[in-house]
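Minutes, project check-in
Item: structure for the 288-residue chain
Input as provided by the requester:
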Amino acid sequence: MEGIIIMALESLPITGQLATLNQAQGKLLDLSIEFGPRLFAAALILVVGHYFGRWVGRLLDKMLKHMDLDITIRQLLTRIVRGLFLVLFLVMALQNLGVDLLPLIAGLGVAGAGVALAMQGVLSNVAAGLTIIFTRPFRVNEYISIAKEEGLVENISLFSTTLSHVDLSRVVIPNRKIAGEILHNYGEIRQINLTVGVAYTTDIGQALGAVEEVLRSNPRVLQEPRPVVQVVTLADSSVNIGVRPWVSVPDYALAIGELNRSVLETFRQQGISIPFPQREVRLLDSGR
């Protein structure tokens, strides 16, 4: 009899745990029945909002292309529209779940103020990026020099501008370093500045004609704007001829080497002398 009582007493905690587990399962089941359809509907709203926003973004991008807008502005407007649609569908999903949005918005406002103070550098980049995008001091595929860097503009975003170099490297400049700085925008063409010296005994007309012929025969040199070839300096040992043609930005480095070689070969063929620097030294007798 005592053994049966002991066994009954030992079984009481297990029975209590089972009752608690059954109660929790029942509660979860009730919550699933009550909120399951809402959660499913909210997830469905978010998925629909994602794909709907992408579709609207693609449609807007096609419309903006016909307006001949800059690619950076098109991308910015497309992303803003997609973001607005995602926020709209997110609000719809939260309302479907029965979330009170007013306290949430107030909390986000307070949190946003703190985040803004902590991310002043990022926000200054965004403000500068918007200034660059809408004032358009330079565009994609233009060659610029700024902040002691230069290169071909590859991408303009809200936070930074990416430049590419002829050595295949990239420079990422924060937009706040660009706004307010002196900008040299070469556009899509660059002017080469070469100087070649000839002897004072040289027929200048022949030398200028030889250089002009080299420029006409090089396919990288643009004929419009017209290349500038002229005497620029009467130096100590030579008459210096300035050679300033325009080329496309990607051809800049290659064209310099090709023109230097062609001018040298042409001068040798026509017997035009490129003199070495010379100094005349006279020794005066002091009378001793």
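Outcome recorded: The two ends are 147 Å apart (CA to CA).
No further action items on this chain.
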